Amino acid sequence: MTAVEVSVVLPAYNEADTIEQTVSITLETLASFLPEDAYEVIVAEDGCSDRTPEIATRLANEDSRIRHVHSDDRLGRGGALEYAFDQADGDTLVYFDTDLATDMSHLEELVNAVRIDGYDVATGSRWMPENRADRPAKRGIPSFGYNTLVRTVLRSDLKDHQCGFKSFDRQALETLLPIVQDEHWFWDTELLVKAQRNGYRVKEFPVDWTPKGDSKVDIVRDVFGMGSQILRTFWELSVSPRITREVSLGAGTMLVVVALLLMTQYLDPDRVLAEMAGAAPEIVALSAVVYAVSWPLRGIRYRDILVSMGYRERWGFLTGAIFISQTGNLVFPARAGDAVRAYVIKARRSIPYPSGFASLAVERVFDLLTITLLAGVVMIGLAVTGSAEQLLTALTGDTVGGDAASSGRTAVAVASGVGLAAIGAVVAIVASARSDRNFVRAVIGRLSSDSYADYVAGVIEGFVGDVQTVAADGSAFTRVGIGSLLIWTFDVITALIVFAAFGYSLTPSLVAVGFFAVSVGNLAKVLPLTPGGVGLYEGAFTVIVASLTPVGVAAAIGVAIVDHAVKNVVTIIGGVASMAWLNVSLTTAVEESQSADAIEPETND
């Protein structure tokens, strides 16, 4: 008896009408160029709901060359293939779609490219100049666009990444699979891209291909799924390896320098420095102490969020985790520190990543809602007193300074949008938490009928479920809300003390404007927009303070700079101390937190 050399996997989901014929044609084609008993055909039946399992079992009982690999749950395209390949016996592993859209006359070339020619991976292509694939516009245009995007963004040399007609050397595949993260439709593309990046020999050859069945653009699979996976892979392969602490600090420093240089185009830096030099150092130190007091409140609020989700942790540990994550946000781009916090509570307290990110989402929503309410209350007061007209004049005129006014206008617009989004998010979360309807499945079901939608819905449901848990708990909702109000009040008081350090009396008017300026500035900086080289926070703070109080433009910018410096210094000191206390390396935490893309089972035990 000849040992099995080639294993052909047929991924099957509800293929009762065609699977028997597909298996028969596959066996007949393999027999035309391979010795008897040198091959096997595996029906990888992926949680079917029709008669496919019964048919596959019968075929396997009737022919020793046929095997049936069953999965009770949907594994997805990539997951089902990996599961079947793991149980295959051949050294050459092959798969193709069961609709036989690719002409089976190419099977010998596909198999022998790996078995005889020594390639590590071989794939059919519908986009090589010499092929004769029949591609209607509704298939061809999206396919061409997708493959062009992959070649451009992921620097692939291949023409076609999604053709369901591929073969692999077992050793090469076993090395590649651990670094392939997707388990669904993007599996093919990710495997081919990473095979090229890791130096494996990949053969692409033209095939005759005839479309079978209908095809349509699926929003969840094609846009949410494939698009996000292209971005995720680009980040993993091209961006993440270049993000080191030194690079991040250098880039951040350069941006600060550029911003300061651009600021000199509309404002005399000597005036700003003179204003800052006149600030009383002992009062600035007092502002740092006041700001430090707010950090235990952050830990207590985070404890209340986690308790409502079923996790009980000490507020001291959680305060340290927040310190580390906020320090990460100062050092690394794209708010990578948020993922660091999820990593810290996962590594030190075994809280699953989905719950870690959900707790962060709850915290962010409450932050945005609180500062929106603070800004809204003051705005009402400004409207009642007639001061709102002064602000409008400053935003539309040139009294504050060209770039500062431009930045202020953008800041107020962004703050308004973010504030409205925060209010809408809270209303939606509370409403859905009190409803028995599954809104996630309903919405995704309207957008997609693809199997990938089940995966997406499951991930979102777990995340939303944790968020809704807090919203449904009236006591927790109240405690977290009060905690948020106290935290942001301390944030504003810190800025007001800095005003006092600059020699300004804390009149009721200045206090009210301070609340408004800090709230709008924090809402604005949610989006990383910096028109004219001026940060949105500084722009909003300056235009609001300078237009509504006797404080000049130079002094307002000086207060904003010192206010930020005080808060950043307290954050870094607390972050360094917490890293030493909890034995956490910031760079390691950022690297490890990237594995959070893999959604894991969640338990509250």
From TrEMBL:
Residue ranges occupied by any Glycosyltransferase 2-like domain in the UniProt entry: 7-176
Transmembrane regions: 247-267, 273-293, 365-388, 408-431, 539-562, 568-586
Membrane topology: Multi-pass membrane protein
SUPFAM superfamilies: Nucleotide-diphospho-sugar transferases (SSF53448)
Swiss-Prot/TrEMBL keywords: Cell membrane, Glycosyltransferase, Membrane, Transferase, Transmembrane, Transmembrane helix
Top-level taxon in the UniProt lineage: Archaea
Gene Ontology CC terms: plasma membrane
GO biological process, one term: protein N-linked glycosylation
Main location per the UniProt record: membrane
UniProt-listed InterPro entries: DPG_synthase, Glyco_trans_2-like, L-PG_synthase/AglD, Nucleotide-diphossugar_trans
UniProt GO molecular function: glycosyltransferase activity
The keyword rRNA-binding is annotated on this UniProt entry: no
Compartments where located: Cell membrane
Entry's family note: Belongs to the glycosyltransferase 2 family.
NCBIfam families: flippase-like domain (TIGR00374)
Protein name as annotated: TIGR00374 family protein
Organism, scientific name: Haloarcula hispanica
